[in-house]
Q: What sequence folds into this?
């Protein structure tokens, strides 16, 4: 059993030395991935393709290997072939007739031939001879050169005939490690997942940096997305997952920064922290899922101000993509289900966010931060090999209980920001309502009467759910989500 792996065409137009390097990298990727399934797999490198020889004849293993090959960057197509030696043109026809007669029964067909080497015939003559013979001596409906029911593909190399029995589309792109490493800022949503995939498919070994704004529950969800992307598309190479605690940054922004500037300031702090992480890992570029004009912080002016927070290159592969195109791509690559259930947790919500940030004003706001803020969060960050997530990815986060009714001894905690709380105060007749903004809940909750049950409230239920999960993770079981 054999697969012939066709190179992505852009690889074939590289210079001789670059093309050879890309082919070698692709060979290594294929070997690293497939040998986890079948240790007997052998990969042979050619100038225009790679041959994958399977030790097992098990059809289930064949299917699994074909699926894996479809997810390795650098491949245009995968041909499942049977190989025979021949001497004459009639030998080619006899072999084709033997293997394709049942396939074309009651169907129209067309024969296409690719030939390499010195022969007494050309490719067109093979197509005519084989096609004519199959048309006359099988139960096919006939030859149809355009849009046939079945396309029969034959490849001839010297004295060997390759009969293509199945053909699978490849992922295209460049082999992993053909480009330098990047650090992707991963939130688990549609954008960051698709951006990470695009960098993997462009040949970059993609590491992940997660800024934790929502506690353990949020981190487990993001780890699952990152692990899925690596396992499906980047398994051939080791990568890192870095988690950076960002609650302290959010708290300082909410307490010290002008409301309209919060979003841009948060992104700038993220870029500074990510730069420190990247430098520690010897990575020279950051990747974000930002798309021009998608939200207030992603206007051209604001992106320019955000970029000035670091000297490191920031790549935005989704810059010109529409949101629907991003969502459609997420469906194609398999991250849609993750992103759909991942709460959007931006950490700060400005009432009237600026769309044209002024760098000098932003720098004035940032001067209000504690001097050692970045140093502290980087010191608390955790870096793991992404393979360690496998066991974590199997864990299921226990959902926080959501209630509509309030018991007599329950206390409602309004965790919205001061602006939201003042604009629309929460009043529940006959029940106590306390206000503690979400960014202070982690430090203030321990001071409350723990004999009572606390119902967390916010407008959309997202913040309250994340905070309830976070508090449960800290050992508090007397919290629920209140959704009247």
A:
């Amino acid at each position: 059993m054999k697969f012939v792996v066709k190179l992505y065409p852009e690889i074939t137009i590289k210079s001789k030395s670059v093309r050879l390097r890309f082919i070698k990298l692709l060979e290594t990727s294929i070997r690293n991935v497939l040998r986890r399934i079948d240790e007997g797999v052998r990969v042979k490198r050619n100038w225009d393709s790679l041959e994958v020889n399977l030790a097992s004849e098990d059809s289930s293993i064949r299917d699994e290997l074909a699926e894996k090959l479809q997810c390795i960057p650098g491949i245009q197509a995968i041909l499942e072939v049977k190989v025979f030696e021949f001497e004459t043109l009639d030998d080619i026809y006899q072999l084709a007739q033997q293997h394709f007669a049942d396939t074309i029964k009651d169907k129209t067909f067309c024969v296409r031939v690719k030939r390499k080497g010195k022969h007494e015939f050309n490719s067109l003559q093979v197509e005519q001879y084989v096609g004519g013979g199959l048309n006359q001596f099988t139960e096919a409906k006939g030859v149809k050169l355009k849009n046939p029911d079945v396309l029969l593909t034959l490849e001839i190399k010297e004295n060997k005939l390759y009969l293509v029995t199945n053909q699978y589309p490849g992922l295209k792109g460049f082999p992993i490690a053909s480009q330098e490493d990047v650090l992707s800022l991963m939130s688990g949503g549609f954008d960051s997942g698709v951006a990470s995939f695009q960098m993997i498919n462009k040949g970059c070994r993609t590491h992940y940096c997660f800024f934790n704004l929502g506690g353990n529950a949020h981190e487990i969800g993001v780890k699952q997305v990152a692990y899925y992307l690596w396992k499906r598309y980047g398994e051939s190479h080791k990568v890192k997952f870095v988690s950076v605690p960002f609650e302290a940054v959010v708290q300082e922004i909410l307490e010290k920064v002008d409301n309209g500037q919060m979003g841009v300031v948060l992104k700038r702090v993220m870029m500074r922290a990510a730069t420190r992480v990247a430098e520690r890992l010897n990575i020279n570029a950051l990747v974000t899922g930002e798309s021009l004009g998608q939200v207030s912080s992603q206007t051209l002016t604001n992106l320019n101000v955000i970029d000035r927070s670091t000297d490191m290159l920031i790549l935005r592969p989704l810059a010109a993509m529409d949101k629907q195109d991003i969502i459609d791509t997420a469906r194609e690559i398999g991250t849609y289900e993750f992103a759909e259930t991942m709460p959007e947790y931006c950490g700060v919500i400005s009432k009237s966010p600026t769309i044209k940030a002024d760098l000098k004003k932003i720098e004035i706001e940032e001067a209000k931060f504690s001097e050692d803020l970045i140093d502290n969060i980087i010191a608390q960050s955790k870096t793991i090999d992404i393979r360690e997530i496998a066991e974590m990815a199997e864990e299921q986060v226990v959902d926080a209980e959501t209630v509509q009714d309030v018991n007599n001894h329950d206390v409602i905690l309004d965790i919205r920001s001061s602006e939201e709380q003042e604009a629309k105060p929460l009043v529940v007749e006959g029940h106590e309502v306390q206000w503690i903004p979400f960014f202070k809940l982690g430090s203030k909750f321990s001071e409350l009467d723990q004999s009572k049950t606390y119902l967390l409230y916010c407008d959309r239920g997202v913040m309250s759910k994340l905070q309830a999960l976070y508090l449960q993770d800290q050992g508090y079981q007397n919290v629920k989500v209140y959704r009247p």
Notes: The chain has a mean pLDDT of 90.
